[in-house]
Amino acid sequence: MIGAMRCRSLLGSTSLLVIALVIALVASGCLRAPATEAGLQFGYAIDPNWLADEPRYGEIVSADANIVTPENYMKWERIHPEPDTYDFAVADSIVARASEEGQAVRGHVLVWHRQLPAWLTEREWRRGELIRVLRDHIHTVVGHYRDEFPDVVRHWDVVNEALMPDGSRRSSIWQEVIGDNYVDLAFRFARQADPDAVLFYNDFYDDFGVRFEAVSEGMTVVPGATAGRSDCAEVPKCAATRDLVAGMLARHVPIDGVGFQGHITGTNPADYDHLARWTQDLGVEWAVTELDISLPADQGDDPALLAAQAEAYVSVTEDCLDAPNCDTVVLWSVGDADSWIPSASGGVLGHAALYEEDYTPKAAVLEMLTLLEGAG
Ligand code: XIL
């Protein structure tokens, strides 16, 4: 691993040789030590196929991250493929690697409306039955990591994307069969399974919601055209989340934090410090759990856009560093090659990660290094 001292002593030099050395260093990752020194859990959503196939991917994950999130392998369709079968093999391989590297793992995700197995979605459930299935799933999955990898998986995204942009509940098997109460139940089951786990509600609140729906209707994205909205009260879903969390706390439901995913379209992110400030009033944490900052697919070489992207990465991370109740920033891919954005946007967007398709660092890596070095 690259030591913080080596990174720091090289930063700020104007000698060409030293600048070349810094570029070589950041090429293999350099962010872990300064992030740790700054008290930040920083890392990536990762996929074991990329770890196996692309050596630079693994090098960057080792050298940049002190926390990782399994991108897909803890989701129901992977970890609970049949009613009576749990398949922990791949998720465990991710957690075991992280544990060997001294990295934490963010558990993702216990309740979501997507990536569910057919056995769950393709039959009718009675309410009591589905509650038992939910309880069994949460107890088994959280209990597995509590017992097999103590202290590695401390944070869980318990419920993901339960709300619509207008603040109403999203339709899902959980909502339709169990009703509003499924959110409270999921958090109670998670707390029963691991009294020490840090339990988060996770959702997206910024440009992504508005812009992504526009993209999926085939509209062209103009980066920066949507002003980042920074007042939670102006974003109906954010206001609804605040009410949800306040209600949960009043009902003594165990919730510890709110994840702001941060799938940002364009380069004009909200002021997260402002957007998330209400969490502090309620006494819970917030985190940036899935940050990526996408550009139009055909403009990934535009130096002005790349500079704006670097600034946007720094601004979101800085908001977390500055907040007394935020200590986590997780990026939702390592490089552009492993990013979900091109396929999720139907090819309209891309270039969302810190590293290029071939895992060379973008300007944003150096900017992040400078920010983290300054924060330590
Ligand atoms: C995405 C993955 O990145 C894709 O590989 C998969 O096909 C779909 O899910 N919000 C979340 C993540 O909470 O789990 C999603 O991950 C991205 C949106």
Short description:
The longest helix is centred in the middle third of the chain and has 22 residues, at 127-148.
Q: State which percent range the strand residues make up.
A: 15-25%
Q: List all distinct small molecules, including ions and cofactors, that are bound in this structure.
A: (3S,4R)-3-hydroxy-2-oxopiperidin-4-yl beta-D-xylopyranoside
Task: Give helix % range.
Answer: 40-55%
Average the pLDDT over all residues and give the rounded result: 89
Q: Looking across the biggest beta sheet, what order are the strands in?
A: 1-2-3-4-5-6-8-9
Number of E strands: 10
Question: Could you give the order of the helices and strands?
Answer: HHHEHHEHHEHHEHHEHHEEHHEHEHEH
Shape: globular
* Low-confidence sequence ranges: 1-12, 207-227
What keyword list fits this structure?
binds (3S,4R)-3-hydroxy-2-oxopiperidin-4-yl beta-D-xylopyranoside, 10 strands, disordered N terminus, 16% strand, alpha/beta, 376 residues, 18 helices
Helices and strands in order, then pairings?
Blueprint: H1 4-10, H2 16-27, H3 32-37, E1 41-46, H4 48-53, H5 55-64, E2 67-70, H6 76-79, H7 89-100, E3 104-111, H8 118-121, H9 127-148, E4 153-160, H10 173-177, H11 182-193, E5 198-203, H12 207-216, H13 236-250, E6 257-260, E7 263-265, H14 272-275, H15 277-282, E8 285-296, H16 303-322, E9 326-331, H17 341-344, E10 349-350, H18 363-375
Parallel strand pairs: 1-2, 1-9, 2-3, 3-4, 4-5, 5-6, 6-8, 7-8, 8-9
Antiparallel strand pairs: 8-10
Helix pairs in contact: 9-11, 16-18
This protein binds (3S,4R)-3-hydroxy-2-oxopiperidin-4-yl beta-D-xylopyranoside.
